[in-house]
Every structure is written in structure tokens, then in C-alpha cells.
Design a protein that fits this description.
Layout: E1 2-6, H1 9-12, E2 21-25, H2 30-39, E3 44-47, H3 51-60, E4 65-68, H4 89-92, E5 96-100, H5 104-109, E6 116-120, H6 125-135, E7 139-143, H7 152-165, E8 171-172, H8 174-186, H9 190-196, H10 198-205, H11 209-215, E9 225-228, E10 231-234
Parallel strand pairs: 1-7, 1-8, 2-6, 2-7, 3-5, 4-5
Antiparallel strand pairs: 6-9, 9-10
Helix pairs in contact: 6-7, 7-8, 10-11
The protein binds D-malate.
Length: about 240
């Protein structure tokens, strides 16, 4: 199995996803939050590149919840923001959620050519690695980054997944080795790394520092979302 990493969406545009698995990573905070939503029993999360896409969906489906952010904050007419702490079972169990964020949902949209698309964060790192090992399909770990450029936290999370696969029969690209080196440098204190990152500092400034502790909680959850036919749901099986 070949394991590659798109360190940014600009890099992703140069890579061929056809026939491969893609694993989308937006640690702060989209993929951590979507994973938390699935853990809390959301029926499905429907990613929309634009806020107006979420609003248009609710016109057709009035029971739909709207979640996401712009500038880190909840849009005024949305039910939920982009904090994993908001997505409790009381609020969202059994509900369908249209969801739009600045970078995370765009990364998902960029993976349309992939054979399968999974969502990863530090929280479900081990569960994602297990699925990749079972599938044995060539895989690209896709870092959502920031505004098409790379960032520290998504690169480190890609490296954490690489780290889980090192003992297996996996061929790493240079980009995968770079991601692993970044993770290896920060593995002793993921929370500190997230707090020192550009977006981590923005979240602290917005009063959302408590999200960072949740986002740093390595291997704390067994749930993995799969993006299929426009919706993300939990399907922990070989495909
Ligand atoms: C994004 O998609 O850019 C992020 O999830 C932003 C955020 O932290 O809300």
C-alpha cells in the first residue's frame, strides 16, 4: 500500500485520487467536530462548500439542523457552530445536519475522484489507521490546511496516522515522511502544538480554547465517518 499526504489543497490539485482512498483531516476543527457529531448519534452530516448551500437545503428539508462557521463563529441563523462541545446527543441525536466551514468542507469537496473518503482527526487516529490497514488501498491523507496552504496541526495529524502504519507493509512518499517528522517532533504534547499553531491562537483569541483540549485527545474515539453520495455517516467496515 502506498501512503501519500497532500499537505495542502494546492498540493491536492496536483495529485491523482482516482482509485485511491482519501482521508480528509481538519483537526481545528471541522473533522474533529463532524466525528463528535457522529459519536453523538447524528444521522448524517451533509457538507456544503457555502453557507447558502446549507440554507437552500433547509428550504427543502425543514427539520435539517445547520452547523458550521465563518471566521470561527456560528453564522447567526445557524443552529450550531463548529465546536465539538456543541454536538451533544441531546441536541443532535438522530438529526441530519447541513454543515459548512471555511476549509474543512472545501477539502471534502476536493476529494470527489477518490474511491472512498474517510474523515480523520487526532481523536479517531487509531480507528482510521485500522480501516486503512484492512482496506490495503493506496491512500492520500488530505490536509485541509488554511486557504489552500499547509498548516501545522493537519500535517501533524497526517503524521500521526503515518506513525500508526509504520510497522505495516506501507510505502511512504516524501510528503508522508515530512508529515511523520512533524508529528514526531510534537508527539509529546499535542495540546501545546495545537495551542501554538496559527489557528489555535485564533481560537484562543475567540474564547474557544476549550475546543483545543478536545481536538488534542488522541485515540479517544472509535468512530470514523465516511463521505459517500454527498453525506457523511458512520460505516466502520471494509469497503
Ligand atoms: C475550517 O474548516 O476552516 C475550520 O474548521 C475553522 C474552525 O476552526 O472553525
Amino acid at each position: 500500500m502506498n501512503l501519500d499526504v497532500a499537505l495542502s489543497l494546492a498540493e491536492l490539485a496536483k495529485l491523482n485520487l482516482a482509485g485511491r482512498s482519501a482521508v480528509v483531516i481538519d483537526v481545528l476543527r471541522a473533522t474533529t467536530t463532524i466525528t463528535a457529531a457522529l459519536v453523538s448519534g447524528a444521522a448524517a452530516v451533509i457538507p456544503c462548500a457555502r453557507l447558502k448551500g446549507c440554507r437552500a437545503m433547509r428550504m427543502i428539508e425543514p427539520n435539517l439542523l445547520l452547523g458550521g462557521e465563518r471566521g470561527g463563529r456560528r453564522p447567526a441563523d445557524f443552529n450550531l457552530g463548529n465546536s465539538p462541545r456543541e454536538y451533544t446527543a441531546e441536541r443532535i441525536a438522530g438529526r441530519r445536519i447541513a454543515f459548512s466551514t471555511t476549509n474543512g468542507t472545501r477539502a471534502l469537496a476536493g476529494c470527489h475522484d477518490a474511491k472512498t473518503v474517510w474523515l480523520a482527526a487526532f481523536t479517531n487516529r487509531a480507528a482510521v489507521a485500522e480501516i486503512l490497514l484492512r482496506n490495503k488501498r493506496d491512500t492520500i491523507l488530505v490536509c485541509a490546511g488554511k486557504l489552500r496552504l499547509s498548516n501545522l496541526e493537519d500535517t501533524a495529524c497526517a503524521g500521526a496516522i503515518v506513525d500508526s502504519l509504520l510497522a505495516a507493509d506501507v510505502t511512504l512518499t516524501d510528503r508522508a515522511r515530512v508529515a511523520w517528522s512533524v508529528y514526531d517532533q510534537h508527539r509529546g504534547d499535542i495540546t501545546a502544538m495545537l495551542r501554538e499553531s496559527d489557528h489555535g491562537r485564533t481560537l484562543v483569541d475567540l474564547g474557544l480554547g476549550a475546543d483545543i483540549d478536545l481536538c488534542a485527545n488522541l485515540d479517544s474515539c472509535p468512530t470514523v465517518g465516511r463521505y459517500l453520495d454527498g453525506e457523511i455517516a458512520t460505516i466502520n467496515k471494509i469497503v
